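User:
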Amino acid sequence: MKSHPTFATKLLVDMKNTIAFFSLLLFCKCLPFAQNPSTEIVPKLESCLQEAAAKGWSGSAIVAKGGVVLLEKGFGFADRETKRAQTAETVFSIGSISKQFTAAAIMKLESMGKLRLDDPISKYFPEAPADKASITLHQLLTHTAGFPGAIGDDYDNVAATEFAHLAFAEPLIGLPGQKYEYSNVGYSLLGIIVEQTNGMGYEKFLRENLWLPTGMKHTGYVLPGFQKEQLATGYRDGQRWGTALDHPWLPEGPGWHLRANGGILSTVGDMYLWYKALNNNTVLPKNATEKMFAPQVAEGPRGLSHYGYGWVVQEIDGHKIIWHNGGNGVYNANMTMVPAEDLCVVVSSNSNDHISDDVAMQLLGILWGKQLVPAEGEEPYRNNPVTNAIFKEITERGPAYFSQNSDAILKAAGFDFDNDMQLLGVGERLEEAEKWDEGTALFETYTRLFPRIVVAWNRLGKCRLAKGDKAGAKTAWEKSVMLRPKGNPAVEWLKEL
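Assistant: Predicted structure:
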């Protein structure tokens, strides 16, 4: 979904960054070409995926229309070292597509009369401080609660109580209900509410009430009993990352920095079963799916896409698209649905250099008989007029000039002083260019304007260290660890110093 941050040097980059990537998907114009006879569609789908695999993509895909599965197949290697092939049954991480399962669980509980979407979170968390007590479940579902994107690393295995404590201690980045800001934190809190409301674990509730009734036996965290050889091995920048089972989880699944907002494992076949269940209202009442698919809140100021409950909603060339994607800088998955046309596309990938979103858009174009090409949409967080202007100023005028005039430069560039993402985007570009003096100046400004952003302190330390300033790196990383003592790579970096 979006232009991912540089995950080769991922330093607690929160998953809200991926919303910039979401904004690139399916913001497109349609260029008509001759509609293919139906007998030609399947070979074209197959050819598209083979071409993508020849260019380095590996993953699995399912394409279905009108209740007919046109293609269900794997391409490339699920494990490059052992030459284990991807198949339609290969298990992969669906990333943030997990959010719609959390939303569905909330809708299920609402249909059971166990909660209301206008409930304040103080009903479930009496300890919620005054600035957060009135946040509603609706606001959590629509990313309008004001929570930041993330408050910890995916594999920092905190329990529910500790996670809630961390979330309530974190300052809001906006008043509840006033601004869309993609947040993993809000969905993890929703997952905890699912547990509190039904008296069983998050995964168990989903498995018993959503997945098994739908026939989904290969979806979940730990309850399906996955073996490593069933899973796609992930690769980051060509290096083996492993599978989700190679990284630390609690006995009942991932810690709450990841649980309920991401990381669910599944197959393309299971995800298609879920699509059918939603489209046919077999596990949720019709009014519940209508709420999930409704355009609840605009994702950006131009209103080119909207967020429902766990789904992105868009209209393209007269087609209402319901979609989401997910990724952690290793895996990437995309699920796109057009319920009115009974159309579903699910694509996975297990390497960050060839992502599934691009493949999904090509498949959708084949199904529509049109060529989909990117068009101007919500601006990505690291390559837009604002970031380009900032990057130009700091590289052409130098780091000293930028440090002395940073606020004026940012204001002239049109920077939104309530949103740190564009500074992260500029900083990543400077790091990639190995402009360490400029990067240091940029991240010093970043940490001054946003003093509680851990990733900014971590990258400031990296830039300082790269130019030989060990004392400066130590100071930055100590500040980072003060903000987040657990699950922070700066802890190890300080030891190495």
